[in-house]
Amino acid sequence: MNLSTIALACIAAYSSNLAKAYDTTDVSKQFAVTGPMETKLKAAMLESVEFLRLITTMDVDQIKGQVVKVGNYGIATGRKVNGRFVTTNGVDGHGYELVETDSCAAVPWSTLAVWANAGSTNQFMQLMSQNATLRFALDMLRVGFNGVSVAADSDPVANPMGEDVNKGWHKIVSEKAPDQIVMDPIYFNPDAVGELKDGEYKTLDAIVTELKNTLIHPSLRNDPRLVVLVGSDLTAAAQTKLMNQADKPTERVAAQQMDKTIGGLAAYTPPFFPGKRITVTMLSNLHIYTQKGTRSRKSENSEDRKQHEDKYWRMEGYAVEEFEGYASIDESAMTIGPAPEPAP
């Protein structure tokens, strides 16, 4: 198919508006995103995905360096004879490393034609802009939760969750602080009756409480910033059980809201979080770093591929601030169902 006159005019208007916003003459050629526009681009991506605003995202100067501490989780109050009580917010810690990260939000010509005929030129430009920033932002989380390696040539077919784009938070902790990740078999069995077997739990509350009290550092266990990240497969299993048992309106409300608080912690199911994983941490403990001055964009209509492509290149990486503030059950260790009978 060929683009209609209306679609071509809308693309031209979008490209012109993008060039004006970034103060460049031709957006079809790669251009640097610096200064105020660097800040604006970051703000647009944070605004497009709510969960991204809850974690720590910051720009850093170096490709390699020490993890930036955004807080000191120890006590800050006391006294000292003949002086003032002082604690420090040290910058010492483990390292991070940024890698080349290239994103492309492509829109097929068939979709462009629909968008161009669905409303005004301004609406078309808004759809194009939102599509790019939303996809870039979501991929930051997709890789953060699922990334396990840095491949020279990433394969989105074999690794649809960005497993080979970068090492995400879970992988970093599993390599540098493996004791914080539970790999022993865990069985979530909401239908359990009677005595539970080893590794078997009837409620998510019990799993989260034990995870927090076993692996989170004692000084952090009652930190009000602690939350639980829980996969959708687990919440679905728990809700189904509650809904099947609920024969009163109040019980149904409880079933619908059970994933808001689990084990006394505020509960989240972030985009692309593995369905059978549970993680207890502070959201500020999850870091994404981008090297200052490395962001660049390109926006072009590719006739060979019959699509419009918005591209975003930068040096980017992930880090965890406090390993002892991160405790997780790996999804490979979690089974939804009863534990097997012990061997005779």
TrEMBL record:
<dbReference type="InterPro" id="IPR006441">
    <property type="entry name" value="Phage_P2_GpN"/>
</dbReference>
<protein>
    <submittedName>
        <fullName>Phage major capsid protein, P2 family</fullName>
    </submittedName>
</protein>
<keyword id="KW-0732">Signal</keyword>
<feature type="signal peptide">
    <location>
        <begin position="1"/>
        <end position="21"/>
    </location>
</feature>
<feature type="region of interest" description="Disordered">
    <location>
        <begin position="291"/>
        <end position="311"/>
    </location>
</feature>
<dbReference type="Pfam" id="PF05125">
    <property type="entry name" value="Phage_cap_P2"/>
</dbReference>
<feature type="compositionally biased region" description="Basic and acidic residues">
    <location>
        <begin position="297"/>
        <end position="311"/>
    </location>
</feature>
